[in-house]
Amino acid sequence: MAAEAQAQSELKDFGGIFRLDGKVAVISGGSRGLGLHAASGLLQAGCSKVFITSRKAQACQEACDALNALTNKAPGAIAIPVPADSSKVSEIERLVKEVEKHTDHVDILFANAGATWGEKFETHPDSAFAKVMDLNVKSVFSTIQKFAPLLQKRATLEEPSRAIATASVAGLRIGTLGNNATYGYSASKAAVIHLMNNLAVELGPRHILCNSLAPGFFPSKMASGLMGLIGGEEKLAKTNPNGRLGRPEDIAAAVVFLSSRAGSHVNGAHLVIDGGVHQGRIGGLPNL
């Protein structure tokens, strides 16, 4: 009986461990794909404001219209469109100013904007490599740098703010080679993982936790071309140890976890979301 009483005394109430009630989030590349899935998850977990940004104003507005139509978000919760080109520092600075018109702080920053380019080694253009590195790496750094004051505003030891960046399993292993090689993309995603490791140490003492996601294949506009070359979604799913591709709830749950109290001691980590593919070779076909 004494042992049982001792065990009961050690039990904790974990109610609301994944809740984000009242939190404010900003998502770059949030108008479609992984960013939109994450926005949906954040709103349904209780966020009061989620700012959606991408280059195209219409896409931002359409995404926010869909998010604001969700029936199970908190009363008064809202998605706010703020179009901006994350590849330009001046645009990121403008984005911060626009966000400040609605809030004096940010709790969650999801740097998700990205691009890829496929071309064989001999003709892989310098301009494409530079574009991918600029958007996938430099803009992640610049976005976190410019939003850091807002992330610090209400961050505490007990309730730290979060900065999350989208990397990829292509940054952990050999990606696509051959006629559609993605050298810049693979290098950029490896750089994102290491960048977030560095920022975790730099910003952790400021109560900003920095982590990255390393997704495998999720059906999306960016991935559709490569998936088609490999043989399509059905064939690709069969090569996955988990027997399927990524689903919207997979990315949404990962972002909610890292943003919530459940992830409050996770810093400088990369969370792989690929069903186990990174243990081998994508579809067994890295040369396309």
UniProtKB/TrEMBL annotation:
<dbReference type="Pfam" id="PF13561">
    <property type="entry name" value="adh_short_C2"/>
</dbReference>
<dbReference type="InterPro" id="IPR052178">
    <property type="entry name" value="Sec_Metab_Biosynth_SDR"/>
</dbReference>
<dbReference type="InterPro" id="IPR002347">
    <property type="entry name" value="SDR_fam"/>
</dbReference>
<protein>
    <submittedName>
        <fullName>Bile acid 7-dehydroxylase 1/3</fullName>
    </submittedName>
</protein>
<dbReference type="GO" id="GO:0016491">
    <property type="term" value="F:oxidoreductase activity"/>
</dbReference>
<dbReference type="InterPro" id="IPR020904">
    <property type="entry name" value="Sc_DH/Rdtase_CS"/>
</dbReference>
<keyword id="KW-0560">Oxidoreductase</keyword>
<comment type="similarity">
    <text>Belongs to the short-chain dehydrogenases/reductases (SDR) family.</text>
</comment>
<dbReference type="InterPro" id="IPR036291">
    <property type="entry name" value="NAD(P)-bd_dom_sf"/>
</dbReference>
<keyword id="KW-0521">NADP</keyword>
